[in-house]
Amino acid sequence: MPIYEYEHLAFNELEEICLWGEIFDIKQSIHDDPFTVCPNCKNPVRKRISAVGLSLPKTNKEIRDMGFTKLVKRDDGVYENVTRREGESRYMERGQPDTTPDLSKIIRD
């Protein structure tokens, strides 16, 4: 289940701040409606847009091991396959289908 962040809207001077803090996060189904009030203190809240943590491959080997192919343009119509696998051409050239990476080795059901 995803975790969503919510922010309490302005408290008035007479209200105490919620024990969950001004900003809190909570596990919630993606199909649930967003909260409009805090489940703890019943004060109004709004959903926040949060930063997501992404783990992206950094090297050509990591990209290849994940099943991707990376082509780097070297000339007009010429691309270097920097993630080539055994039996693949180093360069892919326009109009020469035999230089195209063999996706049947990469894509499986």
What does this structure look like?
It is a single chain. This protein is mostly beta strands. It folds into two domains: 1-52, no CATH class; 60-105, no CATH class. It has one helix and six strands. Strand 4 and strand 5 form a beta hairpin. The longest helix is centred in the middle third of the chain and has 6 residues, at 60-65. The mean pLDDT is 86.
Strand content: 15-25%
Q: Oligomeric status of the shown chains?
A: single chain
Strands side by side in the biggest sheet: 2-1-3
**Helix amount:** under 10%
Distance between the termini: 27 Å
Net shape = rod-shaped
Write down the domain tally.
2
Could you tell me the mean pLDDT? 86
Number of distinct helices: 1
Tell me the Rg in angstroms: 25 Å
What is the N-to-C succession of helices and strands?
EEEHEEE
Largest sheet: 3 strands, antiparallel
Outline the low-pLDDT stretches. Answer: none
Give me the secondary-structure category: mainly beta
Say how many strands there are.
6
Keywords:
24% strand; rod-shaped; 109 residues; mainly beta; three-stranded antiparallel sheet
SSE blueprint and pairings:
Blueprint: E1 3-8, E2 23-27, E3 45-47, H1 60-65, E4 71-75, E5 78-81, E6 91-93
Antiparallel strand pairs: 1-2, 1-3, 4-5, 5-6
